[in-house]
Design brief:
alpha/beta, single chain, Rossmann fold, 13 helices, six-stranded parallel sheet
Amino acid sequence: MRTLIVAPDSLAEAVMTQPLAALLRGQDPSGRIDVLADPSVAPVFEAMAEIAEVFTSGHAFGPVQPWGKFQLARRLDRHRHDRVYVLPGSKRAALVPWLAGIPIRIGLHSGTRWGLINQPHCTVHASGAERRTDALGRPAVERFAHLAFDASHPLPGQVPNPVLVRHAVRESAARARAGLPADARLLALCVGAEDGPSRRWPARHWASLITIAAGEWPDLRPVLLGTAGDRAFATEVAALCGGTALNLCGQQALGDAVALVAQADAVVAHDCGLMHVAAAYSRPMVAVFGPTDPRFAPPRSPRAKVEWLHEACSPCNDPVCRFAHGRCTSGVRPESVFASLLAAARFPTRDIR
């Protein structure tokens, strides 16, 4: 059977798609699984062993552009997929598979998509910062994985953790573009906070962590990763630690950031997409949580540690602290984060496959 997955356009949920692909591969070992993804998350699907081909197009997810969607549908029609799993909840995401004539169209049910989805699975009640959980309080990784089974039955057992496959050539190329020596050991610091400043650990804490790590692990090169919007914050962090950290925020494509995280000896991250990437690569890591709840969307890896104070006002999911103190993040101490990182780094890392 030829299967298409219409992927979410957020980095975190893209990673959470992998267990669904693994379950579908287990049910049909000789089948083919392709993905239609926004270009911004395509590198994640290129690192999934189960995916045969990644089709990239912004037309499937962006504003209604009839000609672009028709062209994309014709392109997909040539591949004759038997079924499609539409993971985003929007009508736009379901339109292209319908235009492509894919006969079985499975997705999380939404009344506005009647006819576009002919095998609705369940109802999603989600918005804003809570978009990764449904009415049952399930994280996206479980919600997506459930699509591989009958909707009237509970999930048969625990959902496997997401797993991404390392690629030596891509990792070497990412190092070269970043100006890093081939033998450099990396401490990846994912300082991005795409959902609001309340998730951001203070710059002084990042700088303190870098200083502590330099004393214990002098051969690790700290690298700051994030988007162009995080560059000013990362510049402040680099200045506070005396310029010992390499600021790559906004200087790389996502594929390079993913490749650097994949080969890092240790990772520290906010609750962000790269946190889930690091977990899927089984890197030793610590995730710093504040206003969000790690019980719903934690880094799913036995090598991941979570630092969360669980203040009385947390989780609130607010992008900006309503009380203007931000204690849920600023109260997490660098010494505690480094102690957790030491514990996470005690186990052997996964080699390149």
